[in-house]
Amino acid sequence: MLNGKIRNPRNQCGDFRMMGCREKLPVKRFPEINTNNPIAMTPIRIKSILGNSGRTLAASLLLTSLSFAAEKPFSKIVTFGDSLSDTGNAFLYTGGLYPANPPNAAGRISNGALWTEHLAEKLGMELQPEDQYAVAGARTDQDNFNAIFIPPLAGTGLESQVSTYLTDSGADPAALHTIWIGANDIFTTLTFGGEIGLTVYTAIQNTAQSVVTLSSGGARHILVVNLPDLGLTPFGLAQGPQGSAQLSYLTNLYNAGLKQALDSLEKAGIRTIRLDAAGLIREIAADPAAFGLANATDPALVSLNNPDEYLFWDGVHPTTAGHQLVAGRAVRELVAFYSPRKGHGKGPGLVNSLNGLVHASNR
Length: 363
Fold this sequence. Notes:
Helix content is 39%, strand content 7%. The chain has helices spanning 54-65, 89-93, 115-122, 158-168, 183-192, 196-216, 234-237, 240-267, 277-286, 320-338, 347-361; strands at residues 77-81, 176-180, 221-225, 273-275, 295-299, 310-312.
């Protein structure tokens, strides 16, 4: 295995940490996915990776009233993952070469703020650069899909991100920790070859292990986002009906296994907030207008239309409008997780649901 190498140049330490492969923490064995049966699918050729209810009302009321809260629900937001959460690390590691700016906005692979930035704003918080560990291209292990093309990104996978965070400062029990990862493991195998079933199984185990590592290090609030439906992205749709269906199948395989793993951890006492990105993408694709969008299938980057009306910026990454929708769903899940009323309340009562109950759980 490659030596892990994850760097956070925006941390005050400013050093480049080199870490060998660390020993796995003891973890309850998860129900295994059967990888012995061959997956009934023809390998696809990767063309290009780049190219409302009461609960909804309750979440809206929460956003309106959070600005009046005396306390913030979390001390800070610490992010782990890939380009869906990377607000500038890959850009810094590569000296501003990747992602290209323009057309991307300020080191992000999108046209504006990402979901964690929108989430922080909705919670009355401010995302701090030194708390951001996500790197574009990161896999669930220690490495990065883009490293073969961009060597400075080698060793910046999820495991390395988490290890560096715990080495830098230790886990803050009052912080919200977010993990959104998994697509680049799949893209690596589809691009360079390998057993895709084993890849998905390993990615699930790696993600669950990182949750265990964070929890063992002191993290108490961990939000895990599953994979968006890759078959419904512009990249997925461009593979044709069979290729799109295969990518949706792999999405479902990963998400089902991740749910099993997180359910097992919950029984062992490690609770996680869950965000169903796959379900959200499917809802938007079925009725874009209901979410204020005009297009959920094409990349805004190659059009001359208003990107605020598009779900996707490029082949797989959302526009800032799409990220805004993810952040809104994250707030809803936070309310449901911490409130005994599951988000059914009014005004300041909802603030207490999130602020008061989060702080109470820290005691």
